[in-house]
UniProtKB/TrEMBL annotation:
Catalytic EC class: transferase
Protein's name according to its UniProt entry: Adenosylmethionine-8-amino-7-oxononanoate aminotransferase
The family this protein is said to belong to: Belongs to the class-III pyridoxal-phosphate-dependent aminotransferase family. BioA subfamily.
InterPro entries: Aminotrans_3, Aminotrans_3_PPA_site, BioA, PyrdxlP-dep_Trfase, PyrdxlP-dep_Trfase_major, PyrdxlP-dep_Trfase_small
Organism lineage: Bacteria, Bacillati, Actinomycetota, Actinomycetes, Streptosporangiales
Top-level division of the source organism's lineage: Bacteria
């Protein structure tokens, strides 16, 4: 173990860190169910679902078998000029789930958003986008340009990024009545810039890595109406919110709307392999014509096979009841953190403690790991997005660890 961690420190650059990282890295020997076993023998409940992707947990037999079966036929084949059953079946399944007609298979969430932006620009002939502060859409260049330009994680690249139009963030609170003044401000801003805008891009109902903010579905409905009024496309970035995380299959379902373009990823394969997709209506596809994009591993057979198995499993399991149960346990357990925090909020299988000041990541991780839990706080947030497979006892461990971490903020 010591040698492994030494080599890691010497050679491996981890995400969102300097080199070497300021916060310790922990080596994982095994992942099974909802637990991670570290090489030093510690066993931790994974409260992060491997960055929100492993919704079924680890070593899920159906998903393991899907990978093994696909290996007997092929691990990969180029998608240019060729196709195969797992990719076609996945595309059909996604069409059935979303109501969108055309599917472009990508290899990561950021790439899916890049493709969505290309689609919007080609379909409209306009090059600027409209979005809201507090958002996060990925780490590649065009994705960074529609993330929060001030409080986001990409401020170092401000001078190099395309300049888009930003509205203030939607007022916080899923259950808080909509602010008519905010809606009027957004409508006015859109009206002034509509002639140069291709699309509105949003994370439906939940703004994820930009701050774990939840907002009322009425705002999303209004953005759909405004997009139609001003002849813009609506892009829904469902990479974090898709496949049940918020209590509905997709974030857009809370508002009863359909976007023109949708991005999905993360939980698409149940956390097994990197895969994403950009979907659009037939009308948008016709306006685009030739789409100049083609990742080398587009439509990878292993990834699409396990995605099919994951979506089949999701359809068979009572995920709505599971997520509703997780929501109830998180809400009850995290309420004890309120005296120590700026805000405590829960929606679906997402629980958030927001501190008054940025937290000490190492300190928080030490506290929760001592209690047998893995979390990855950032900024002012101590949060969890656990696997749907978590039992009540697992969730109690997560909430107790989070409350203990919140107490340390005093």
């Amino acid at each position: 173990m010591d040698d492994l961690l030494r080599l890691d420190r010497e050679h491996v650059w981890h995400p969102y860190t300097a080199f070497p990282p300021a916060v310790p890295v922990h080596a994982v020997a095994k992942a099974e169910g909802v637990r991670l076993t570290l090489t030093d023998g510690r066993v931790l409940v994974d409260g992060m679902s491997s960055w929100w992707a492993a919704i079924h947990g680890y070593r899920q037999p159906r998903l393991d078998q899907a990978i093994k079966d696909q290996l007997d036929d092929m691990a990969h084949v180029m998608f240019g000029g060729l196709t195969h059953e797992p990719a076609v079946r996945l595309a059909v399944r996604l069409v059935e789930l979303t109501g969108l007609d055309r599917v472009f298979l990508a290899d990561s969430g950021s790439v899916a958003v890049e493709v969505a932006i290309k689609m919007a620009i080609q379909a409209t002939g306009r090059t600027r986008l409209f979005t809201v502060r507090g958002g996060y859409h990925g780490d590649t260049f065009e994705c960074m340009s529609v993330c929060d330009p001030v409080n986001g994680m990409h401020h170092l690249f401000t001078g190099a990024l395309a300049q888009h139009v930003f509205a203030p963030p939607p007022p916080l609170g899923y259950g808080v009545a909509p602010d008519e003044g905010y809606l009027a401000e957004v409508a006015d801003l859109l009206k002034r810039h509509a002639h140069e805008l291709a699309a509105i891009i949003l994370e439906p109902v939940v703004q994820g890595a930009g701050g774990m903010r939840f907002y009322h579905p009425a705002y999303l409905r209004k953005f759909r109406e405004l997009a139609d009024e001003f002849g813009l496309l609506l892009i829904a970035d469902e990479i974090a919110t898709g496949f049940g995380r918020t209590g509905e299959l997709f974030g857009c379902d809370h508002a009863g709307i359909r976007p023109d373009i949708m991005c999905v990823g993360k939980a698409l394969t149940g956390g097994y392999m990197t895969l994403a997709a950009t979907l659009c209506t037939a009308e948008v596809a016709e306006r685009i014509g030739l789409l100049m994009h083609g990742p080398t591993y587009m439509g990878n057979p292993l990834a699409t096979a396990v995605a099919n198995a994951s979506l089949e499993l999701l359809g068979e399991r009572p995920w709505r009841q599971e997520v509703k149960g997780i929501e109830a346990v998180l809400a009850e357990g995290l309420a004890a953190a309120a005296p120590y925090a700026k805000d405590v909020r829960v929606l679906g299988a997402i629980g958030v403690i927001e501190a008054h000041e940025p937290v000490d990541v190492q300190k928080i991780q030490d506290i929760v790991m001592e209690r047998g839990v893995w979390l990855r706080p950032f900024g002012r947030l101590i949060y969890t997005m656990p696997p749907y497979a978590c039992e009540p006892a697992d969730l109690a461990m997560i909430t107790e660890a989070m409350v203990a971490a919140a107490r340390s903020l005093r």
